[in-house]
Specification:
Helices cover 10% and strands 38% of the residues. It has a single domain, classed as Glycosyl hydrolase domain, family 43 (Tachylectin-2, Chain A, 5 Propeller). It has 6 helices and 23 strands. The two termini are 38 Å apart.
């Protein structure tokens, strides 16, 4: 189905260069501007998080939580997969796999029988998808205290598919807390892992997390699905004056590769090969606690780095993004231009109501094209990146300990949508 053309929610909706982040402004990418309208989700698609890979068959694939493609009205899978064909704005979503194994269910049916709330990966949400060595990998998230924006509780496992999502195998090797929204760095069609590792990023909670950590694995089934085979960035060493990560097998020893107190929601990272830059995207909510954290609007942040571990620099932001409560932004690799300067951003929005905002963004695959302006002097940009401030190892560990502490506040929960009630009940 062709995406519905939607007029931007604000006449002055634009990407801003005014830097309100703790990251130095990029000297390489000097501006970013929207060059298309916003397009709403295709009429046969709904659901969120939407990690998207450019597979070796030339098509793109995405995982959708609490939604699906082509399901009967009012019914959902906990997670399902779709193939995306065509180019924006004429894209088509097609369900991948057997739509009856399992079948989608309505909210009413799920409230009566919670086992119906499932998908091809089992009774789990999934925030991460990647292809490596012709195999797709997807995360299986354990339930967490969603209603209080609590810490993630780990992964039930990482599933894999050797036939582009038609069938899945689940080794069920659990990954420890606070993993949850683990998502891989997208690098090239089918995955190009020049140093022999697939990289992934994660935060400690769903909305407004503080720390971004990074792990890596060899790109094979035995390594990707086994937590004992993973390595985590746990410190820094200096090589020719430039910090490089030191790795540990222990997740508990991981230190952040980036920190911003209470500002990182569903980060995703894509490699812009022509520009040799890793583009990190996330949002932060203006509200600090549920339900305001979902309903009071959010801001888009775009950062760039020469390596998946940084150092990160600020590119652009948009206030009241979505509009106005968008989340899980990311750049699908298959839609990056040959010069790396024109890209399409995708995101979801408006899953749990609004607080007096324009929330016309769809609960599904929204997308819009932007253009990057690059400095004429790459040498100057490299110098600025090298001079970007970095936190000390001690400070990074202190930030991590503070972020992983469970919140102690309580509040009254406002009425929420049926979808929100289902998710909240699952986290208890």
């Amino acid at each position: 189905m062709v995406g519905m053309l939607v007029v931007p929610a604000f006449a002055d909706a634009r990407l801003l260069r005014g830097n309100n982040t703790p990251f130095a402004s990029s000297a390489l990418i000097t501006s970013a501007n929207w060059i298309s309208p916003r397009y709403g989700p295709p009429s046969n698609q709904s659901g969120d998080i939407l990690p998207t890979v450019w597979a070796d068959d030339g098509n793109q694939y995405t995982v959708m939580n609490d939604g699906g493609t082509g399901e009967p009205a009012g019914e959902i899978w906990k997670q399902s997969m779709a193939q995306i064909t065509g180019t924006p704005p004429k894209i088509k979503f097609s369900h991948v796999g057997d739509a009856s194994a399992p079948s989608p269910a309505s909210f009413g049916q799920i409230r009566q029988n919670r086992t119906l709330w499932s998908g091809p990966l089992g009774p789990y949400y999934s925030s991460g998808l990647v292809e490596a060595d012709h195999v797709l990998f997807a995360t299986q998230e354990k339930n967490w205290s969603w209603g209080t924006n609590g810490l993630f509780t780990g992964l039930a496992g990482i599933a894999y598919s050797t036939d582009l999502g038609q069938h899945w195998s689940a080794p069920t090797r659990a990954f420890p807390a606070p993993l949850g929204n683990l998502d891989w760095v997208q690098r090239g069609q089918g995955g190009h892992y020049v140093d022999g590792y697939v990289y992934a990023i994660a935060t400690e909670r769903e909305f407004n997390a503080t720390n971004l950590i990074m792990g890596r694995s060899r790109p094979d089934v035995a390594s990707m699905t086994n937590p004992a085979k993973w390595q985590w960035a746990s410190g820094w060493r200096t090589h020719h004056g430039v910090p490089w990560p030191v790795y540990s097998r222990s997740l508990a020893s991981a230190v952040p590769i980036a920190s911003w107190a209470g500002h990182i929601t569903y980060p995703q990272m894509s490699y812009d090969a022509p520009l040799h830059q890793y583009l990190l995207t996330f949002t932060h909510s203006y509200g600090t606690r549920p339900p305001a954290i979902w309903r009071w609007g959010s801001e888009l942040d775009i950062l760039a780095a020469p390596h998946p571990w940084g150092p990160f620099s600020f590119v652009a932001r948009e206030m009241n993004f979505g509009p106005s409560n968008g989340y899980d932004p990311g750049f699908p690799l298959g839609w990056i231009s040959r010069n790396g300067k024109q890209l399409w951003l995708k995101w979801a929005a408006n899953f749990d109501g609004c607080a007096g905002l324009d929330c016309s963004g769809g609960y599904g695959f929204n997308y819009r094209q932007l253009q990057l302006t690059v400095a004429a002097s790459p040498a100057g940009a490299r110098s600025a990146a090298a001079a970007a401030p970095r936190l000390s190892h001690t400070k990074l560990r202190a930030n991590a300990r503070a972020a992983y502490a469970r919140p102690t506040h309580h509040w009254r929960q406002d009425p929420v949508s049926p979808k929100a009630l289902l998710r909240q009940a699952a986290s208890n």
